[in-house]
Design a protein that fits this description.
The structure holds 2 protein chains of 2 kinds.
Chain A (H helix, E strand, L loop, with lengths): L2 H23 L16 E2 L24 E2 L3 E13 L7 E6 L5 E7 L3 E8 L7 E4 L15 E2 L22 E2 L1 E6 L6 E7 L5 H6 L3 E7 L1 H4 L9 E9 L30 E2 L2 E4 L2 E2 L2 E6 L1 E8 L6 E6 L8 E6 L2 E9 L1 E4 L4 E7 L8 E6 L8 E10 L23 E11 L3 E4 L18 E8 L3 E5 L5 E5 L14 E4 L4 E7 L5 E7 L2 H5 L3 E6 L1
Parallel strand pairs in A: 1-14, 3-6, 5-12, 8-9, 13-18, 17-25, 26-28
Antiparallel strand pairs in A: 2-3, 3-4, 6-10, 7-11, 11-12, 13-15, 15-16, 18-23, 19-22, 19-24, 20-21, 20-23, 24-25, 26-27, 28-32, 29-31, 29-33, 30-32, 33-34
Chain B lengths: L1 H12 L4 H28 L7 H21 L3 H23 L11
Helix pairs in contact in B: 1-2, 2-3, 3-4
The chains are: A mainly beta, B mainly alpha.
Chain lengths: 524, 110
Amino acid sequence: MSRRVSRRGFLAATAGAAGVAGLAGLGAPTVAGLLIPGQPGRQLRSQLPLPRPFQVPLPVPPVLTPTQSDLSTDYYNITQQVSDHIVIPGMSTPMWTYGGSFPGPTIASRSGRRTVIRHRNELPQPSVVHLHGGHTPPESDGYPTDLLLPVGGGDMPMSMAGMPADPAASIITGERDYIYPLDQRAATLWYHDHRMGFTAATMWRGLAGFHLVHDDEEAALALPAGDRDIPLMITDRAFAADGALLYPALDPTMTHTPGVTAPYANGVTGDVILVNGAAWPLLEAEAARYRLRILNASNSRNYRLALHPPPPGGGGLVQIGSDGGLLTAPLAHDAIDIMPAQRFDLVVDFSRYRPGTTVDVVNLLGTGPTTSVMRIQIGRAVADDSTVPTRLSAIEPLDPTRSAVTRTFLFQNIGPTEGWAINGTPFDPARADATPRLGDIEIWRFVTDFNHPIHLHLISFQVLSRNSTTPSAYDQGWKDTVALHPAEEVEIITRFTGYPGRYAFHCHNLEHEDMAMMANFVTT
Amino acid sequence: MTFTQAVFAGGFLSGHYELLGLHADYGRITGYAAVAQLITAILLWRPGRGPGWPVLVCTLLLGAVGSQIYLGFARILSIHVPLGVAVITGSVLLVIWAWKPMAPSPETPQ
């Protein structure tokens, strides 16, 4: 046996195995695909022909009328119910809704004026209502175990597989009053289900709506208003052959086992883009300024939204606000990167286009049908007395040298069955992961593996740094959800104010959230 | 082969979720390959009458790859990443040695 042959044999034994395994391994993204950033989620494929785009007028969810108002408070009633919704022409899609519509009715509140919403649960399962972006006392914040059981109670299991029990949970049957002081700036908030372990499935079925807060500062600005102030809730879904929603739940009964089948662990996306519940709708707009309050209410899909064609000179998407209300000054973008739960408050001046122009809102992160979002058909020129002033509001930059404590949180996948964790541990309602004192300024550092939109309840924050340098163009203003891309680190700074109690913070990729990428802070 | 692991790691750090699973699967395969490599090195030494030091090197590599599997699943990345670089370096040096032209040994007709 020659040494040369032996050495070659030695190579063959190792490299041969490598070659076979290597070829087998190159399944998922192509080599070229590796050169662009990966996006969260795996796309479900609808089992029917997709609806033709731009056929349906853009729906605008109606503003709910209070059932009663007094000197300090407006009272509303919302019934959570299963109702049929039409997305696919000629078919009905059973959905879980607030008040029978998807999106649910819009609540419009005045800053500092109390809003009380009596939710009645006529769904087959428990629910939890969270006002996203609300500065809300803990009893009404919609903690994931503070269940509202269906009318009649049913026989709900109180502890579910793989989830810790929560002795501190407040569980009510039938109806619950959610009390919102709304002692906060004007902003685009939204409300949605937050039930522990099943939020992804219940929101996919339709439990989401807008809650707008107005104030005097905003009203004094002469921003586009009325019919030219439109909230846009962008979601993606996929449909079965009979029009029902597809969803890869491990437990379709949604009673015992949270989570989705393994291929969808990084998030569920659909091949149909809905805006305010309609597939690829059409907005017939006048050639005037419009305020478009954009919310990404998708479970896990990231979007990069742009106008196609852009208006002459570019910068068509003029951002005036973020999650937590107005920016200090308008900021013109050619495109908006928006992760789940984030809001971008935009003014788009359609008079920069010639009347008759067709403008598409496109998603530059999409493929195939998901590259398209909606179409705007620009009509005649009209009188428009709205303005976008160069100074919108004042924001006090929080001083990092006054921070009482710096906390670090690592958002990471810890294994195919273990799921998603913060600092290596899955969600446990009994554990206080941070205990900020009310009044204190704190710096929180977030470090990630994959894409994670990180959301804090109770407070808004400012982005202090991104990857040790300045925040991005999409980090401006007050945020409650910050975008972390793969292998990034972001520092936020906030002052904890308001109410003592237990609050959640979590990844807002809903499939990550349900598979336990959530933690608690307890304010004292 | 070990270099492929770096490609997969870079891929999932760019957000390609599937590549984390591939990185894990491939880690196990690398473990089997390290065992096969050690067996080959032993055969090269006896009965192959080759040098004995590759046995030592392959034993170290097998230990390193085994540690890598544990460190990776335990997400102890501060050791996992540099040790991964060391494994790649060791493997590359071994490949260079295996392909290096050698003087024919007296007992083989070359």
